[in-house]
Automatic annotation (TrEMBL):
Any single Pfam family the record assigns to this protein: HTH_20
Protein name according to UniProt: Winged helix-turn-helix transcriptional regulator
CDD domains assigned: HTH_ARSR
Organism: Nocardioides jishulii
Annotated SUPFAM superfamilies: Winged helix' DNA-binding domain
């Protein structure tokens, strides 16, 4: 993963770290909503909802378009899939490590009493 991808991942997880933003994302993934309609769903100011929408937009998880005086927001399914793929990759990495630990635990203990003594090497 290069620096740009890491920056994008930081933006995704920052955006998704807030429950209001996750809720907004769920709504706009289900269908396009005006920002004012979204604001009516929350017990916070319109400006606060606009800020949450802006964070999601900067992260690339949501897109906005203008229709007359309204700003309409839609979820970006491809970006959400990318987040899911990244999480799946991380899960796979950890599952591999856990499998290796399980294999090491399951290995019978070596009998060190019959092995010849180990001679020190120059690396020691």
């Amino acid at each position: 993963m290069n620096e740009t991808e890491e920056d994008r991942a930081d933006a995704w997880f920052h955006a998704l770290s807030d429950r209001t933003r996750r809720d907004i994302l769920r709504r706009v993934l289900a269908g396009e909503h005006s920002v004012s309609a979204l604001a009516a769903s929350y017990d916070m100011s319109f400006a606060a909802v606009q800020k949450h929408v802006a964070v999601l937009e900067r992260a690339g998880l949501l897109t906005k378009r203008r229709q007359g005086r309204e700003a309409l927001a839609s979820g970006d399914v491809a970006a959400v899939r990318s987040v899911g793929e990244m999480l799946t990759e991380l899960e796979s990495l950890w599952r591999g490590r856990i499998s290796r630990i399980d294999e090491l635990i399951a290995e019978p203990e070596l009998d060190h009493s019959s092995a010849p003594p180990r001679r020190p090497t120059q690396e020691d």
